Amino acid sequence: MILQIRVYTTRSGGSHARGRNDTIKLVAQTGDEAKWLENRRKAKLPVSHTGSGNWDRALEELREAAKTADPSCKEDRKEHTIQ
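The structure assignment produced for this chain is given below.
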């Protein structure tokens, strides 16, 4: 399981568009993880988050979900600078 985090910033280091484009999502690496994500979606539990609202809470919740599915999960965090 991969926890994919994308954050967009300005050149000065501030958040771009007040964080509206920032995303967090769970990405499956195996078939079992894909089934687990699909079951989570069907149960109406979050598998992704977009925007700045409740960012810390969403990040922690998705991080815990990733560790539940795969104790050796990885985080893929990328910061993109917008001009």
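Interim note for the steering committee: Residues 2-82 form one domain. The radius of gyration is 14 Å.
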